[in-house]
Design brief:
The protein has ten helices and 26 strands. A six-stranded mixed β-sheet has the order 8-7-6-9-10-11. The chain has a five-stranded mixed β-sheet with strand order 4-14-13-5-12. Strands 17-16-15-18-21 form a five-stranded antiparallel β-sheet. Helix 2 crosses helix 3 and helix 9 packs across helix 10. The chain is globular.
């Protein structure tokens, strides 16, 4: 029977219009079908008819039987403790950040170390192995369980498991703060450095901070981090205290993008939105669909953009499958609406040579140019068995450039011209979909 290596995925046709996706991430097998998603079991102990048909009944029974035979972690307490975390506000270019402490915004899982276990923002326990927490001090620490840039989904799959697997060896606990320590931010950072040097935990480290010298420094660092596949920056006010809840002493700086999609379905609302729009299902030119449920006003929920119409939505980044992450409705659009789609979040300031301004308004005449910008130099890898291959694609004007070969080599390059940018973009989208279907995963270029 076929199987999936770690990081691989495949499509299977079910009863729905679109095929379901089977995936193996860190030894956790998943399916996008409702039967798998709606189970109350831990994610590593779920299965469905599609996984059983693909992997075989015996393979699934052996996998689940091995998991069930493992001793469970310590019995959770009957009362849930929800940590009082310091939460960031978004920087609106209204504060001079010169002198603030700057660090990379990690795309991991927020975690509160109580002195004996990790808690999520909601108070759920992350059951880390004993060897992972060895050496952590008996005092509260605020940080992030982190694997790598562009690895959020893989990180979640590992830390949500209940079997304390060996995959935790790939995770690091990156510590932001020591909430119980007295004094301003600088004193708490010195305390953290000293404490971790003393206890020497193998899988924990302090997040490095750098003084921001001004907007130019911020722009350069944001461009560097995003080029590496990072999510953005975090800025801490000098001499600030640890304030539980949303605080203006902690600011996040990220570049968001605007794009267009066509509405294909209305989903009903629940709770306070019962009886009106809950979300729209939107379709990209590639045919990929996703839901947009935030950003609507009450009036827009009562009178939503009609099926078949175009909407402008804002998103943070694309997932490995090319799905917009954290999409939010901006406004409805008409076919003859020629207003430019722009990158919006922060007003541009003095721009460094060769470095895009933070939130610089990049005028896009149409969605073909937008897709050209997004798809520029996307890099994928396939690692399985004896194979270790890369594949890179970029669109420039009406030309599609593909580079491929074994990882560690320069590979070979092919350039194919098309009648126009739209045709080049459509061809690139088809190639990307085909590679993802074959198990290639998007990564940061080596």
């Amino acid at each position: 029977m076929p199987d999936l290596n770690d990081g691989e995925s495949t499509h299977v046709q079910g009863s729905a219009r679109l095929p379901y996706i089977l995936k193996n991430v860190g030894g956790v097998y998943s399916c996008t079908c409702p039967a798998w998603r709606n189970q109350s079991l831990p994610i590593e102990r779920r299965t469905c008819k599609h996984l059983r048909a693909f992997r075989g009944e015996q393979a699934e029974q052996e996998r689940l039987g091995a998991l069930l035979s493992k001793p469970s972690a310590a019995t959770p307490s009957t009362t849930r403790t929800v940590p009082n975390l310091l939460l960031a506000e978004r920087w609106e270019n209204d504060i001079d950040l010169a002198g603030w402490w700057m660090s990379e915004k990690l795309d991991g899982v927020r975690a509160w170390w109580t002195g004996r276990e990790f808690l999520s923002r909601q108070g759920n326990v992350y059951r880390a192995p004993d060897w992972f927490v060895a050496g952590l001090p008996n005092l509260p620490l605020d940080g992030e369980l982190w694997l790598d840039r562009k690895a959020f989904q893989r990180t979640v799959s590992i830390v949500r498991r209940h079997d304390q697997s060996e995959h935790w060896r790939r995770i690091a606990f990156v510590v932001f703060d020591a909430p119980a320590a007295d004094g301003p931010f600088e004193s708490r950072q010195a305390f953290l450095e000293s404490t971790l040097r003393e206890h020497r935990p193998q899988y924990a480290r302090v997040l490095q901070q750098e003084r921001c010298t001004g907007i130019g420094h911020l722009q350069t660092e944001l461009a560097r981090v995003e080029t590496l596949g990072g999510e953005g920056l975090m800025l801490r006010q000098p001499a600030s205290r640890y304030e539980p809840g949303r605080s203006s002493t902690l600011l996040k700086v990220k570049t968001f993008h605007d794009a267009e999609a066509r509405v294909v379905e209305h989903l009903p609302g629940r709770g306070r939105h019962a009886g009106r729009l809950g979300a729209v299902v939107a379709e990209l030119p590639s045919g990929l669909t996703f839901s947009v449920g935030t950003g609507f006003t009450d009036a827009e929920r009562e009178n939503p953009p009609p099926v078949g119409s175009l909407i402008t939505f804002r998103y943070q980044e694309l997932t490995d499958r090319g799905v917009p992450r954290f999409p939010s409705f901006v406004r409805g659009r008409t076919e003859d609406d020629t207003s430019a789609v722009a990158w919006t979040d922060f007003a541009p300031d003095a721009q460094q040579p060769g470095v895009p301004a933070v939130g610089a308004h990049i005028s896009i005449d149409n969605t073909n140019n937008l897709k050209e910008f997004i798809m520029d130099k996307r890099y994928f890898e396939f690692i399985g068995g004896s194979s270790a291959k890369f594949w890179e694609i970029g669109v420039s004007g009406n030309k599609v450039t593909v580079r491929f070969g074994r990882i560690g080599t320069d590979g070979q390059t092919q350039v194919k011209p098309f009648p126009d940018t739209a045709a080049a973009t459509r061809h690139a989208e088809k190639l990307i979909a085909a590679k993802i279907g074959k198990g290639y995963a998007e990564a940061v270029a080596r």
